[in-house]
Structures are given as structure tokens and as C-alpha cells.
Amino acid sequence: MKMNGAQLFVKALKEEGVDTLFAYPGGTAIDMFDALYGVEGIDVVLPRHEQALVHEADGYARSTGKVGVCLVTSGPGATNLVTGIATANYDSVPLVCFTGQVPTYLIGNDAFQEVDIVGIVRSICKYAVTVRDRKDLGRIIKEAFYIARTGKPGPVLVDIPKDIQLEMGSDEYPSTVSIRGYKPSEGVHVGQVRRAMAMLGKAKHPVFLIGGGVNISHAQKELQELAERTGVPVITTIMGKGAIATNHPLYIGNIGIHGNYASNKAISECDVLFSIGTRFNDRITGKISEFAKKAKIIHVDIDSASISRNIVVDIPIVADAKTAIQTMLENITKPEIGDWVKEILEWKAAYPIQMENYKGMTPEKIIRKINELFPSSIVVTDVGQNQLWTTQYLELDQNRQLLTSGGLGTMGYGFPAAIGAKLGNPDKDVICISGDGGMQMNIQEMATAVALELPVIICVLNNGYLGNVRQWQEMFLDGRYSSTCLKYRRRCGRDCADPDKCCPPYTPDYVKLAESYDAKGIRVTKLEGIEAAFQEARSNQAGPTLIEFIIEREANVLPIVPGGKALSDMIMDC
Amino acid sequence: MKKRWICLFVENQIGVLTKIAGLFSSKAYNIDSITVGETEDQTISRMTIGLTSDDQTFEQVKKQLNRSVEVIKVVDYTEIPTHMKEILFVKISSCNREDKEEIFRIANVFGCTVTDYDKNTVLLECTQTEGKNNDIIRLLQSCFPNRIEVVRGGNVAIEAVSRKDNS
Ligand SMILES: Cc1ncc(C[n+]2csc(CCOP(=O)(O)OP(=O)(O)O)c2C)c(N)n1
Ligand SMILES: [Mg+2]
Asked: Closest residue of A to B72, CA-based?
């Protein structure tokens, strides 16, 4: 049978099991939307901005493990994807983004709404391609899904010119893939694993350093078994948090710029650093030459290019985290580590992360309340202090998951990603934690959440500042708050004369803003109000609830390692 | 820092050269030279890339190339016996009779051919190693200052057949 390209596109989505499509229409995509009209089994979601659209697909993908799928028009529709694609790329999130394109015979003519989107996204995605021949369409879509979800997952972009959408051709969608330049690594070098386990077996002060790779490959159960059978303590990166339950006796905490004292100290003191699924990003290592100086390093990663790039590694193992850990379990060794864990736990007890210096309704108190009230939930953060506090205080286990833009640190990620997560997990509580700055970067999605009747709970931690940047200005730039005050108005003068004395009212009024979208808005100003607000939000199942928490304006995230300094140089309080 | 050579097999598609070049520039790796051409299989292009780098950067370059979907195979030509040549054209203008005789002598000694000439211009073609081409250019530049025009093709390389060590 023959069908046109747009119909084959829809058939491909069905064959790939796509149940949710994040899509925004326009001229060069209209035929694909037409083919989708009335199709059963695919929920076509209309966001209010294409940037949010990709974050929604991203949140959906991270929380379900499925590929997130996007469809937008050419030109501005396509360029609006850029930030979201880069965000997904840095955190290895599988996406397939379809873009309409001007007809092949107009490509290169500077036609209306023509951009070379494949050229634009080349360095921020796993693969991007323009379909130039109708007969390649099925194969290319098949390959796109395969590339996105296998190996180290990532975003793939498929650009489909309008004439190809309309051209009649075969209705066949291939069932197998063979790409000669793409063979994701399977299996693991058992000899290397044995060498690594032998090294671990001889260690006196070993630690596991766990990155996002363990969560991506769903190896949490295996990791827990590995930790318990070896007795080796576990430290995570922000992306790795939750790979083992945070209340597990062997879990120490996060490392890095905002890691806790015990974790950073343990990394500085350890003799074997066994890391799985992290690329040793500068945010976690601090000053490279001082990082884990006393340790031999074992590094498991699915991407060989991540190994020995930032840190020189003694034993490299290229493998998927789950496969590697399973093989480790088959070759288990148990090091004699004496009081090592006890020692670390003493550091942890001596220097707990806490906000005791601040009175009243601190972010710590808000997040701890979430721990208490929402045992089965997905918590999605935006970027900034709100994110860092969440990664410090949120407790995770197999029932509570954290989504955050770790690699790119994209403000505006949180709220749309929470919408995507809720669409993929209607039975879970989904809570977004955002700053007052980042919230405005995709606030228009309130309309999407209301339209879809999604009971997402949005917590805006309102400090009236671009808080994360303000903190750096306070600590490292003599308190010169250059362009970080969100209460600023012209009448304040160029430089703030008297912070927090005679400030103008905050704008927007988040409660009214929520109400104007027909969502519920609640403002909380006191500690005692936190629980009641969450209960009220929970009881509103008709749509989203925004809770604005008015928090102390100049609260800081501590501890902190100043830029370019070693992890051992962390500042504990100020 | 050391001179390195990579032989790269890639999909013969629109945009692949940009992809490879972009990969180098986005990671701030510098390319010394790059050549591309179709192979015996029309769907595959072959590149010869020269770069100068330390060991660690070079390892990264190879890994980054390998992880691109469009790259079919990466072969390191740095340490293995290869045949490597570069084509060079040099046009020398405003030549008198004596100049021409000198150019013919140089061509003879350096194994270049005189491909074309008219009353006062001579065109030399040399297919030599990169180093030898450098020597020829330097010599012609000093004999005929400001009268030469140079175009170089970049290196192409293929693995040696008989030689087993890299000499
Ligand atoms: C799109 C984008 N622009 C700028 C930044 C730089 N940045 C990082 S955190 C931050 C402040 C965020 O302020 P807010 O959303 O109010 O969160 P807070 O830190 O106050 O919790 C900024 C500007 C960024 N990460 N992303
Ligand atoms: Mg703020």
C-alpha cells in the first residue's frame, strides 16, 4: 500500500510505542498534524512555547525511561528547541525531535521560515539529519529512535521537508536497524572488572562515586547489593543522587561544589575511588590537581570519551553501568576497611548540612516537609539555589525520584519538565521546586497544565533575587549585587542604597498570576503555613497549584567550594 | 606535542565534513590539514587528517570521532607505515629565458613536472611529501620573490603494502 510521508510518520510513532507527543504546529508541520488528527493512542500535547515543549518531553523521558518525542515547525519553531536539546544532551536524555522544513526544492533559498536546524544543533545533540528522499523516511525515523535510546542516550533531530511529508511512497516501516557507524558498546571486559575488583579488595579507604549513569541504566538494585556486599560507602554526584536510598547506612551524600563535608573529605582521603557513570565534570571535582589525590581511580562509563578526559584513570571500564555492576557482583571482593565507614559517619555527624543559622521558614524546612508528606513522588527542580537546596535536603528512595538539569543548568527547565513527568506518571505526586527568577522563564506553561488538568504542585522559593548569582556576589564580589535583584525598579536608583528596607513590591504577584491562568495560588510566609499549603495543594486534583514561599532574601547554600579551589577548601558557613 | 595522522572513513552525505570540522573546532582541537574524497564505495568518503597534539588530546580526538554516528572507522596512521603525498601547484610569473631555465633545472632535481607554460609564466606540479613540498616552496620563494602563486592539496595517505615498519 502507498501512503504519504506524514502518514508514515504517524505509523512510525505507533510502531515505536509513542503514547505522548509534545507538538506545536506551523506551516511546514501542518501536514503531519493533519495526519495525527483523530488518531487513537497518541496524546498530542500542545504546550505554549517550543522551549518548554522540549523540557516537557525531557521530563517525560527521564521519569518514564521512554523516548520523549517532539514535533515542531521549521524556522522559529525549530530554533526554539535549541536550549532544550542541549539540556537533554548534557544529561543523556533520549529524545527524538521532528522539525518541519521547507520543501527540498526551496532549501538554500532563504525561503520563509527556513533555517539550517541540523547545522545549528550539530554540536548539541547525539545525531541530526535532514530527510532528503521519501524512500529514506522510514529508515531514518527507525534509526533516530534507536540512536536516541541506546548506548549513552541523547537527543536526535529529524528534519522533514514539506514535500517529503506529502510525497506518496511505501508504507513500510522497518523492523530492524543496522548503522555501520554506530555500534553502542555491549557487554563488558571481564578481565578489567576482575582487575578493578582486585584493586578494590586491597583497599583500606575505598569509596564508590556514583553518577547519573547508574540511574539512567536503572541499576539501583544492583548498586545497593554491591554496596552491601562490599561494605564500601557510597557518594553520589547530583545526577547520581537516588541511585541508592539516601537513608541507606552506607550512603554519605553528594560531592562537589555544594557537596557535604563528609563526602568531599572522604573523596580527598580515599585510597581507591571506584566511580560509575560520571564524567568528572568540574562542578564535582573542584580543582582537578587536588581531586582524590591519594586515590587509585577506577572508572566505569558507557562513553569511552568520558574516560581519562578530566581525570587520569588507573583502570578504565567501558560499559553500561548495570552490566558492569552485575559483572562486579559475579566477581565480588570484600575489602578490610576497619573503621573507615564509622570515621566518615563521624564527619557527617560533626558537619551536617543544615540551615540552623536562618530563622523561620527556610528552604530546608520546606523540603523536609515534602520528604514527610509525599513519599511516592517525582520532584523536579529548576536551577539556582532552589535546586541546590533540593539536592541537599530531599530524601530519595525507589519511590521518590529527582529530576534536575545538572549538566547545562537550564533556568526554566523545572516547571515544564514537571508537566512532562506528570503526563508520564499520572499516579504520582509531581512537585516542582523553582526560584522566582526561573519560574518566569516558562511561566506560560501554566496554561498547558491548566488545559491538561494536571495537578502539579509548583513551589516557588521567592527570595526576590537571582539568588545563586547573588550569593556569589555576596561571597566573592564584595556584595556588589549587579543585576540580581528582582524587586528592582528604576526609582531604586542604579545602586541599591538600602537593601530590604524600602524595597518596592515584588512583581509579578504569583498568587494572582496563578489565578489569572485559572490555577490555584497560595502564599506562605510562615513556617506554620507550610503543611497546610501542601495539604491544600494536594486536595486540588483539578489542576495545578502554585505555592509561593516567601523565604529569607539572602539565605545562602552552604557549604560551598569557591571557583577553582580544591574540594578540601570548602567554606562551611559565612 | 607531536604530529599525528588519522585516516577516517565517513558516510558520504551532506554535512558530514562540517560535522567533523565542527567536532574539532567545538572541542578546540586544531586541524593542520584535512582532505576528503569519495572511495571505491560511493557511499563512503575517506579523509586524511593531520594534527599536532599531545597524547591525551589525541586520544580524545579519536574517541570523539569514533562516537559520531557518521564516522564508520578511525585509523591512526601516526605510527604505521604509510605512503603519504600531497599535490602542489606553483605558478611562477614574469619569467625571462634565464628564469625558465632555472625553473626547469629545479623541476628536474626535485622531481616536479612542468605542466603548462606560456611566454612568461611557468606552472609546476609536484606530488611529494609535505616536507619536500615545503622545501620546494621555500626555494622558489627565494629565487623568485613575490612572483609565485601556490596552491596545495593537503595530504592523502594509504597504508603501505610491503613495508612493515615505519621508516
Ligand atoms: C537560562 C539561564 N540563564 C542564566 C543562568 C545563570 N543562573 C544560574 S542560577 C541563576 C539565578 C536563579 O534565580 P532564581 O530562579 O530566582 O533561583 P534562586 O537561585 O534564587 O533560587 C542564574 C541567573 C542559568 N543557569 N540559566
Ligand atoms: Mg530567586
From this structure: A181
How would you write the pLDDT of chain A (574 residues) with one tens digit per residue?
899 999 999 999 999 999 999 999 999 999 999 999 999 999 999 999 999 999 999 999 999 999 999 999 999 999 999 999 999 999 999 999 999 999 999 999 999 999 999 999 999 999 999 999 999 999 999 999 999 999 999 999 999 999 999 999 999 999 999 999 999 988 999 999 999 999 999 999 999 999 999 999 999 999 999 999 999 999 999 999 999 999 999 999 999 999 999 999 999 999 999 999 999 888 889 898 999 999 999 999 999 988 888 888 999 999 999 999 999 999 999 999 999 999 999 999 999 999 988 999 999 999 999 999 999 999 999 999 999 999 999 999 999 999 999 999 999 999 999 999 999 999 999 999 999 999 999 999 999 999 999 999 999 999 999 999 999 999 999 999 999 999 999 888 877 766 666 789 999 999 999 999 999 999 999 999 999 999 999 999 999 999 999 999 999 999 999 988 999 889 987 6
CA A379 to ligand 1 centroid distance, Å:
18
Q: Name the helix (H) or strand (E) containing A208.
A: strand A206-210
Residue A156: which residues within 8 A CB-CB, separation 6 or more? A95, A96, A97, A125, A126, A127, A128, A144, A145, A147, A148
Checking DSSP bridges between strand A296-301 and strand A272-276, what pairing results, if any? parallel
How many Å lie between the alpha carbon of A139 and the closest alpha carbon of chain B? 15
Q: Do B69 and A132 touch (CB under 8 A)?
A: no
Q: Exposed, middle or buried, A227 (CB in 10 Å: 0-12/13-18/19+)?
A: buried
pTM of the entire predicted model: 0.96
| Structural domains for chain A | 2-170 (3.40.50.970), 190-350 (3.40.50.1220), 363-550 (3.40.50.970)
Distance A440 CA to ligand 2 centre (A): 11
Q: Nearest CA of chain A to the CA of B83: how many Å?
A: 26
Which residue has a Cα nearest atom 24 of ligand 1?
A411
Interchain CB distance below 8 Å, A305 and B69 = no
Sign of the CA dihedral B2, A297, A409, A99?
A: positive
- For ligand 1, atom 8, name the residue with the nearest CA: A384
Question: Residue A177, Cβ neighbours under 10 Å: how many?
Answer: 14
Hey, are the CB atoms on A304 and B10 less than 8 Å from each other?
no
Within 8 A by CB and 6+ apart from A502, the residues are: none
Distance between Cα A463 and ligand 2 center (Å): 5
3-state secondary structure of A541: coil
A409 CA: nearest ligand 1 atom: 25
Residue B66: φ, ψ to 5°: -60, -30
- Using the Cβ of B26 and the Cβ atoms of chain A, whether some distance falls under 8 Å is answered with yes
**Which domains, ranges and CATH numbers included, belong to chain B?**
2-79 (3.30.70.260), 83-159 (3.30.70.1150)
Q: How far is B157 from chain A (nearest CA, A)?
A: 21
A469: CA distance to ligand 1 center in Å?
Answer: 7
